[in-house]
Specification:
This protein has 289 residues and is α/β, with parallel strands linked by helices. The protein contains eleven helices and twelve strands. The strands form three sheets. Strands 4-5-6-7-8-9-10-11 form an eight-stranded parallel β-sheet. A two-stranded antiparallel ribbon has the order 1-12. The protein has a two-stranded antiparallel sheet with strand order 2-3. β6, α4 and β7 form a beta-alpha-beta unit. α8 (215-224) packs across α9. Bound molecules: adenosine-2'-5'-diphosphate. Adenosine-2'-5'-diphosphate binds at residues 37, 204-209, 212, 227, 229, 245-249, 252, 255-256.
Length: 289
């Protein structure tokens, strides 16, 4: 059965319901549950238009990275949005070639400069590359102490990487961003993060767009009168994940945000949970060094 609440999209201030869904972070503050991912969104107008559309629709969370090549455009769209800076949660990430204490600090400075911002809300180590992981993390701890990143975290970290960090760090990450969708649920990593009060962010929640054609996802979507993308995004929301769907298309950005006025019932959640197949659609930290 589809549980309906008031439709925020018929409300004159429809931005509020979408942006007000947050999860608490371990080091105080909170993070909006829904963010726009801009991996694979081309730099220039495409990124600017996507981020502007998202902020207009009511998203308050943008997730970029050094390696995406579009930090400048994210910064322009954020600064020109007319939305107060402290209402927008901006994340960027440290790329692999910049590991090490001094290189990480320099890379962070360069990211801030490209974004044209005084601080970011979240700075992540993009990948658990071999060696230097601990000194890189201590650079992030310093950046946080300086107030230039409000929160710090990691991405693509599995339990062994997290255990290594726990044994050697002063503070644990607030966030771990990994690929998660019903076909790749990362339960062990998510359980570890839950035990240590780390919010998990789901990137590629649509399996890079490829899981939108799955028959189970489509039959649930049909039954409840929603789209396959909304079903997959809602599954993440109901699993207490921060969810970062990517789209460069304003209509789909809006559709992907329209997931807070319904809930998936137990039979839909059970059917989606049964889809686990260990199926990574992007680079896989289980096999990638
Ligand atoms: P586009 O940018 O043209 O909308 P993921 O977030 O899992 O990485 O998936 C991103 C892919 O899914 C992109 O190819 C994106 O294409 C596509 N996509 C995003 N939202 C939707 C949607 N609501 N319907 C169909 N395709 C979508």
């Amino acid at each position: 059965m589809l549980l309906r609440t008031a439709d925020p999209y018929n409300h004159p201030q429809r931005m509020k319901p979408l942006s007000s869904q947050t999860l608490p972070l371990s080091d105080n503050g909170s993070i909006p549950v829904l963010g726009l991912g801009v991996w694979q969104t081309p730099k220039g107008d495409v990124t600017r238009n996507a981020v502007s559309a998202a902020l207009r629709i009511g998203y308050r969370h943008i997730d970029t990275a050094r390696i995406y090549g579009n930090e400048e455009d994210v910064g322009i769209a954020v600064r020109e949005s007319g939305v107060a800076r402290n209402e927008i949660f901006v994340t960027t990430k440290l790329w692999n070639k910049d590991h090490g204490y001094d290189p990480a600090r320099k890379a962070f400075d360069a990211s801030l400069k490209r974004l044209g911002l005084e601080s970011v809300d979240l700075y992540l180590i993009h990948w658990p590359v071999q060696s230097k992981r601990i000194e890189t993390w201590s650079a992030l701890e310093a950046i946080k102490r300086e107030g230039r990143a409000k929160h710090i975290g990691v991405s693509n970290y599995l339990v062994p990487h997290l255990e290594e960090l726990r044994a050697n760090c002063n503070e644990l990450p607030s966030v771990n961003q990994i690929e998660v969708h019903p076909f790749l649920q990362h339960r062990e990593t998510r359980d570890w993060c839950a035990r240590h009060n780390i919010v998990v962010e789901a990137y590629s929640p649509l399996g890079n767009g490829r899981k939108l054609f799955d028959p189970t996802v489509n039959s649930i979507a049909e039954r409840i009168g929603r789209t396959p993308a909304q079903v997959l995004i809602r599954w993440s929301v109901q699993n207490n994940l921060v969810v970062l769907p990517k789209s460069a298309n304003p209509d789909r950005i809006e559709q992907n945000g329209n997931v807070f006025d319904f809930a998936l019932d137990a039979s839909a959640m059970n059917a989606l949970n049964a889809l686990e197949a260990g199926d990574a659609t992007g680079w896989d930290p289980r096999t990638q060094d």
